[in-house]
Specification:
heterodimer, A: mainly beta, 0% helix, globular, B: 105 residues, 7-stranded mixed β-sheet, 4-stranded antiparallel β-sheet
């Protein structure tokens, strides 16, 4: 079954760290660029980060540059997002997504991150 | 950053109607635009890519058009399962999304 499954979300205090994971199955994971996005409590979608299929390049939105780090393990078909210095405004549902040429035709079910004291 | 602006924010319709959703980019994104549908509690679903190409399994009543900075998504003969939030996304310069249009009864 072609799918992405995120995990690792939870409630965390401002300033703390959290690591999200995304397990891919049913397709050649190592052939696709991958992304992390989030959906805010208000419903907006925000792109966060991208990693190339071969791990050689990464990119980040201005809002998370320097605080978040994307990585992947193609031998284990997993994608990760290391989040540090978390802020209240980082609260949301975090999705991993597969890039098929700019658009994405595969999203995970999402994992909820709540940053609150 | 490319800012995507969708209108209207909410569209009140009845089944059987034809609806048109608009999406405007703050700069030229060529045809690098996608449309997604999201229902409550679900992840977004790809409907249209490259501005006008339907994704696999998407019914023919969904159509997209436009290029450059102006885009539209048309849903012909709206069905009850089409009530959802629709997002546009540009992928010409990284990814940015519109704020969404809610299609409701």
């Amino acid at each position: 079954q072609v799918q992405l499954v995120e995990s690792g979300g939870g409630v965390v205090q401002p300033g703390k760290s959290l690591r999200l994971s995304c397990a891919a199955s049913g397709f050649p994971f190592s052939s696709f660029d991958m992304h992390w996005l989030r959906q805010t409590p208000g419903g907006g979608l925000e792109w966060l980060s991208r990693i190339s299929f071969d791990e050689t390049t990464t990119h980040y939105s201005d809002s998370v540059e320097g605080r978040f780090s994307i990585s992947r393990d193609n031998s284990k078909n997993t994608l990760a997002l290391e989040m540090t210095s978390l802020r209240v405004e980082d609260t949301g549902i975090y999705y991993c997504a597969r890039d098929v040429g700019g658009e994405t035709n595969l999203w995970g079910q999402g994992t909820l991150v709540t940053v609150s004291s | 950053e490319v800012v995507m602006t969708q209108s209207p924010a909410t569209l009140s319709v009845t089944p059987g109607q034809t609806v048109t959703l608009s999406c405007r980019a703050s700069q030229n994104v060529m045809a690098n635009l996608a449309w997604y549908q999201q229902k409550p509690g679900q992840s977004p679903r790809l409907l249209i890519y490259r501005a006008s190409t339907r994704a696999t399994g998407v019914p023919g009543r969904f159509s997209g058009s436009g290029s450059g900075t102006e885009f539209t998504l048309t849903i012909s003969s709206l069905e009850s399962e089409d009530f959802a939030v629709y997002f546009c996304q540009q992928y010409n310069n990284w990814w940015t999304f519109g704020q969404g249009t809610k299609v409701e009864v």
